[in-house]
């Protein structure tokens, strides 16, 4: 570690000490993260928490790829051993990405069934890692003794809610989306009216024709009644065994005090929200730092035909590149982090989505007039050139992305500050119960008032039946009196 | 006007001038207010807008009671003549209050039908005033020429949306509630799931038993399909005539860019919200100013039995009184402004609700353990004394109100600042279209996906019918072949 890094670390430790001995408002945060781009986003929050003097401990498995050895990190990493190696993990991730990228080209239902099997596989690995954490007595005792104030977890990676339950610590989630919005629906109790909220992965916008609404409804029904994000039966059994009472994954996840959704209305279409759901999309964006004059990200052997004015780098800071005054357009695979950086800096896009949420993200940008979408498989060089020329020269795209950029910049409070506020709020008040809708105490049957509707229908039917019977009885009575009189 | 007031006015005018010639961010606000306590709340927003250099013009009828002649106001008042006098208006308001106070004691359905007739009466007066504004050519020309940046209106007093439509100016609403949440449902497109959101005026909490949920559902059905806030047919016709094309009141109200709801989760039970709905309850609360030592608000003849240590005042500043360090409890009729002041200063309450939303407000406070409710008609002196002793001496009430107070004070941004932010946002961007859900473009039939469900059911029925027919056809075919073979 060099001198600068040492100074930096000392400064941060001093900050934490000051915080502890003065205001007493600083807390201890346990983090259960998800790898890759999820981690990049989470790290922004953690860096800010550290800057504000909180003590941050990240739980990571020995197979994790989170730590960048070139950068000093002021947060602690608590590494626990797992039977998986780093290589195993990276191979698995590679297979996931490659399979999904191939599946995207398939017919939608085949695509979804492929995702289903991928999720099943990752669900098993996730459970393995999770069981290795909670059965690690030494680690769990250490975590218990650390007396954390909050568990911060990514809601797409299970186990965070189990740790929060065992440690009896309030839970805060970070989440971009879950397929079919299943987690958001079942655990956050958010509603997604199928008439104007397109299901994630459906590639529809919020303005749908009748047939698009039919399509969206079919997707909703498919996800709600067929798709399984994790093998729920297995997870529910596992969680019940660990907790020592019958419970479900959805129940433990539903205990989250606050949901920090990594989206906002510059990117997403407006839809219902709840008091304990905060939209903090773009929290990782920041003003750009200066760049060297010419550069190129490339990891392999230097091509022979490369001109002398092109520099190759293993990794370049995308945010600084997008914020460079000469950047005119962004060719993107459509990851949400990258799109947010383009929105922040007002750069129109050409989208070449590969897999996962990327096609859906690009649909959002094309619907808002800030991007052109191309198909990586079928496009020609000319297609790409034309698309680039169009987004650069047609003011329509620049105007729209600048409008989105204005929305991102013109908020009552910066998204990162809002995220930090609510994490600190949960630490200060040991939760945020006042934001929790009472719907969490209802079964889905009660939530949709099906029992009440059934009861009222039964009442109405009974009343109608009794009245009809009475009328018939009276009619018969009168008829029989009439007949009797006639006979008499 | 005294010297101080003159200085104050000059200072504010200077502020406006500075604002116009420097940042250019200041705008022109046209206000369509509602009288009495609604005005007190609205005035807080307007004072702040004026303080920030905006030019505020309040439209008021000649029958209005808004202006307090003893106080200098830096906002403009544009007074238009109406055929009603101030006395007429006050008599009508008195009748409304007295009739409603009597109706509260009736059986719920009689109570509601009384409210219905009161609303019908006020609807007619409202339409009279509204038609006198929009047909006042001189006034309308003046307003047109003023080129306002935003219309700020109270959503329970109709006409603001019509003015915004005629003047082609974006609209922002302030609203506490409408009976049955009808305005919120039809014009803001907010959803109120009957399973956990008690209907306003129902006096239920968010944790309901089965029979309470049945009761709530019946109220919802009553309000949705029977109750009329205004005579909608008349208003729709009137608005269509003025606008010159077929329109409805709900449609024009639905154009609002932002809804500022005067409620928050310290007072209200958590429920679904939308991106263009901001909860700013308690925006009028502020730290208390010092008070004289003993005081009493009383408007009539001084009672003979009055002790020498009691001072009588025509009016006392409730907020300063509640914020006095010696204040231990608050006997309140349960108006939302007063309850918010008690929450802000952490004073437990004894509630004696009289009419309108007051019983419902007190139910919120009793459910949150911050108040005891009594019945003004039936209570004895001892009841009041016991209730007071209980809220003062039992730490349960103080702890709960202090918890609510902490929630009110511990927000990412003060409610008044948030309200002002969004009004200024609408002025800066000429609207807030990015927050508007696409549900506004759907009929209620489409919104609930009834057309899609119908279509899918029809498809399923057709498929089942065709398959059954085919099966029957095949069966018959086989049967006839069998018979034929037997015969052969």
TrEMBL record, chains A, B:
UniProt membrane topology term: Single-pass membrane protein
GO terms of molecular function: glucuronosyltransferase activity
Keyword Oxidoreductase: no
PROSITE patterns named in the record: UDPGT (PS00375)
Reactions catalysed: glucuronate acceptor + UDP-alpha-D-glucuronate = acceptor beta-D-glucuronoside + UDP + H(+)
Pfam assignment, any one: UDPGT
Family: Belongs to the UDP-glycosyltransferase family.
Protein name, UniProt field: UDP-glucuronosyltransferase
Originating species: Bos taurus
């Amino acid at each position: 570690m060099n001198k600068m890094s040492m100074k930096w670390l000392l400064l941060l430790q001093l900050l934490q000490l000051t915080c502890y001995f003065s205001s007493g408002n600083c807390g201890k945060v346990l983090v259960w993260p998800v790898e890759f781009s999820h981690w990049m986003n989470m790290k922004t929050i953690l860096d800010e928490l550290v800057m504000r003097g909180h003590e941050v401990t990240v739980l990571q498995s020995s197979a994790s790829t989170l730590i960048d050895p070139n950068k000093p990190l002021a947060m602690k990493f608590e590494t626990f051993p797992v039977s998986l190696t780093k290589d195993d993990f990276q191979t698995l991730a590679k297979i996931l990405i490659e399979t999904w990228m191939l599946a995207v080209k398939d017919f939608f239902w085949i695509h979804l069934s492929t995702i289903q099997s991928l999720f099943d596989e990752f669900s098993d690995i996730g459970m393995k890692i999770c069981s290795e954490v909670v059965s690690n007595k030494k680690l769990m005792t250490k975590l218990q003794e650390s007396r954390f104030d909050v568990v911060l977890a990514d809601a797409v990676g299970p186990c965070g809610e189990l740790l929060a339950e065992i440690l009896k610590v309030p839970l805060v989630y970070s989440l971009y989306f879950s397929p079919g919005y299943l987690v958001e629906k079942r655990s956050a109790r958010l509603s997604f009216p199928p008439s104007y909220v397109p299901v994630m992965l459906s590639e529809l916008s919020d303005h749908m024709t009748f047939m698009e609404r039919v399509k969206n409804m079919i997707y909703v029904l498919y996800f709600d009644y067929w798709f399984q994000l994790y093998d729920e039966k297995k997870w529910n059994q596992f969680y019940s065994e660990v907790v020592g009472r019958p419970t479900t994954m959805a129940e433990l996840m539903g205990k989250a005090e606050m949901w920090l959704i990594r989206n906002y209305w510059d990117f997403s279409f407006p839809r219902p929200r709840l008091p304990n759901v905060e939209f903090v999309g773009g929290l990782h964006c920041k003003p750009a730092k200066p760049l060297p004059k010419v550069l190129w990200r490339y990891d392999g052997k230097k091509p022979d035909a490369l001109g002398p004015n092109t520099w190759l780098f293993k990794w370049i800071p995308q945010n600084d590149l997008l914020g460079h005054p000469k950047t005119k357009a962004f060719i993107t695979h459509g990851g949400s982090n990258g799109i947010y950086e383009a929105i922040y800096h007002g750069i129109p896009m050409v989208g070449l989505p590969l897999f996962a949420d990327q096609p859906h993200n690009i649909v959002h940008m094309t619907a808002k007039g800030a991007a052109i979408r191309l198909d990586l498989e079928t496009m020609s060089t000319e297609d790409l050139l034309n698309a680039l020329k169009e987004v650069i020269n047609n003011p329509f795209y620049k105007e729209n992305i600048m409008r989105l950029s204005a929305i991102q910049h013109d908020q009552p409070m910066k998204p990162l500050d809002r995220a930090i506020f609510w994490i600190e709020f949960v630490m200060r008040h040991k939760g945020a119960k006042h934001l929790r809708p009472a719907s969490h105490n209802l079964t889905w049957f009660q939530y949709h008032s099906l029992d009440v509707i059934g009861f009222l229908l039964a009442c109405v039917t009974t009343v109608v039946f009794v009245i009809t019977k009475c009328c018939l009885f009276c009619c018969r009575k009168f008829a029989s009196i009439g007949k009797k009189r006639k006979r008499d």
